[in-house]
Design a protein that fits this description.
In the C-terminal section; belongs to the transferase hexapeptide repeat family. In the N-terminal section; belongs to the N-acetylglucosamine-1-phosphate uridyltransferase family. The chain is of the alpha/beta class. The chain has a 19-stranded parallel beta sheet that branches. The protein has a 7-stranded mixed beta sheet with strand order 5-4-1-6-10-7-11, sandwiched between helices. A 3-stranded parallel beta sheet has the order 30-33-36, with no helix packed on it. Strand 2 (31-32) and strand 3 (35-36) form a beta hairpin. It binds uridine-diphosphate-N-acetylglucosamine and calcium ion. Uridine-diphosphate-N-acetylglucosamine binds at residues 13-16, 56, 80, 83-86, 88-89, 109-111, 147-148, 161, 163, 177-180, 206-208, 234.
């Protein structure tokens, strides 16, 4: 087995049913840390220097295939119509290759999401250094129920993997288990899976039987014991999914702290796998950073903030905010209680303040929307200030239209901008104005007419109400004062 090339092929098994998830979604498409389990598996093998990856799909094949193709179209997909066991799945994978593998093959599962590229790389190094035909990734667990056991001889040499259901009482007592992750010499694998038989309690082709075959043929076999048992754990139900999701998050948060991020409360901070954080970011309690969120140096996020696919500039501050698919410039401030919907772009030093919702809009550098507003489909120029309680009425019930506010414009409280409308650079508006027509640069626009008081309206239209009584009491008190009685 020595004259092989060092090309590495990965086989990712993902054809199983996942009945215990009780889900319309395929098991391997359930997510932790913002990635489906199959994506975690593909990211790990890709990071371990694999040249060709074959994924074996079967159950919920359409969903799983589409997700794999979307993640990486270069992954070869092999369809296992019936799940006749892990050995059968590997046969199907090998048949899908143009030629039998001449190098090394890594076999892993689509439902073991904490396994890292580093562990796979170390497993490959160990396998090659020892010159083995098969290297098993094993682990010592407290409760080995259900797992295949590593059967060792008196000298400690690995002899076989025995499935739980086929194990003797002595073998059942073994706590060293087969994680299912194996590294195998390619030509040996091709030969060994061809010789598998289904004479076992499940009448399946067990991949694990290749260990016994190697031993019988005098080929070297060994196990690489992984201390970090979490990395070998699979997911069969939603309790395990949450448990591994929690542990993965703990690892991600710890990693960012090691890289110079302050996390005030790791227990309530959730960070997806693909998030990137610069040094001296501070995350306050209750923060969730999801998707491809990127946070620049010195920014402070939280408390109680959820950002998905948001790019946050240096030294920006985001307080009690829900945001997605948005950009926040350097030194800008957002919140408390802001809602950034897709397409929000806040410029450097800008402000989106309290109880403000923004969608598909640009708020320019240094521009401010400080209070109680809805900004939809608008372009707000650099240095402009939008008054409290402003609504950009972007939707006429049929189409959405854009509006724009010029540079250094000052719009007043409680304005409505009926789109499409343009307020020129440096223009002002009056309080309560409804702006339906364009405002030239430098102009003041007022729309409310002069105030008109209709005396006696309440006595006439709302007689006998508490308002009417209050008005009459106020009137007679004034009369008494005036007559001096
Ligand atoms: C398998 C191993 C066992 C190991 C355990 C670790 C065998 C015979 N047994 O047992 O030694 O301790 O994993 O979790 O290999 N799959 C397919 N096609 C099939 C069968 C399985 O793609 O026909 C996939 C499944 O989707 C899953 C993986 O292979 O991702 C393991 O299958 P599973 O049925 O969970 O194997 P176990 O019986 O638990
Ligand atoms: Ca399993």
């Amino acid at each position: 087995m020595s004259a092989h090339t060092d090309a590495v092929t990965a086989i990712v098994l993902a054809a199983g049913a996942g009945t215990r998830m009780k889900s319309a979604r395929a098991k391997v498409l359930h997510e932790i840390a913002g990635r489906s389990m199959i994506e975690h598996a593909l990211v790990a093998v890709a990071g371990a220097g694999v040249h060709t990856t074959v994924a074996v799909v079967g159950h919920d094949r359409e969903q799983v295939s589409a997700a794999i193709a979307a993640h990486d179209p270069a992954v070869v997909q092999a369809v296992q119509e019936e799940q006749n066991g892990t050995g059968h799945a590997v046969r199907v994978a090998l048949e899908a290759l143009d030629a039998p593998p001449t190098g090394t093959v890594v076999i892993t599962y689509g439902d073991v999401p904490l396994l890292t590229a580093q562990t796979l790389a170390e497993l490959l190094v160990d396998h090659r250094a020892a010159g083995r035909a098969v290297t098993i990734l094993s682990a010592e667990v407290d409760d080995p129920t259900g797992y295949g056991r590593i059967v060792r001889g008196d000298d400690g040499a690995v002899l076989a993997i025995r499935e739980h259901r086929d194990a003797s009482a002595d073998e059942l007592a073994v706590r060293e288990i087969n994680s299912g992750i194996l590294v195998v010499d390619g030509p040996f694998l091709d030969h060994a899976v061809a010789g598998l038989r289904s004479d076992n309690s499940q009448s399946e082709l067990y991949l694990t039987d290749i260990v016994g075959i190697a031993v019988a043929e005098g080929r070297p076999v060994g196990a690489h014991v992984l201390e970090d048992v979490w990395q070998t754990e699979g997911v069969n139900d939603r309790v395990q999914l949450a448990r591994l999701g929690h542990e993965l998050n703990r690892r991600i948060v710890r990693g960012w702290m090691a890289a110079g991020v302050t996390v005030v409360d790791p227990a309530t901070t959730w960070i997806d796998s693909a998030v990137t954080l610069a040094p001296d970011v501070t995350l306050l309690p209750g923060t969730q950073l999801l998707g491809a969120t990127e946070v620049g140096e010195g920014a402070t996020i939280g408390p109680d903030t959820t950002l998905r696919n948001v790019e946050v500039g240096e030294a920006a501050t985001i307080i009690r905010t829900h945001g997605s698919d948005s950009v926040v410039g350097a030194r800008a401030t957002v919140g408390p209680f802001a809602y950034l919907r897709p397409g929000t772009e806040l410029g450097e030093d800008g402000k989106i303040g309290t109880f403000v919702e923004v969608k598909n809009s640009v708020v320019g550098a240094g521009a401010k929307v400080p209070h109680l507003s809805y900004v939809g489909d608008a372009d707000i120029g650099e240095g402009a200030n939008v008054g409290a309680g402003t609504i950009f009425a972007n939707y006429d019930g049929v189409t959405k239209n854009r509006s724009s506010i010029g540079r250094h414009a000052r719009t007043a409280s409680n304005n409505t901008f009926v789109a499409p409308v343009t307020v020129g650079d440096g223009a002002f508006t009056g309080a309560g104005a409804t702006i339906r027509e364009d405002v030239p640069p430098g102009a003041l626009a007022v729309s409310a007419g002069p105030q008109r008081n209709m005396d006696g309206w309440v006595a006439d239209k709302r007689p006998g109400t508490p308002s009417d009584r209050a008005a009459r009491e106020s009137e007679s008190a004034t009369t008494l004062e005036e007559t001096g009685e």
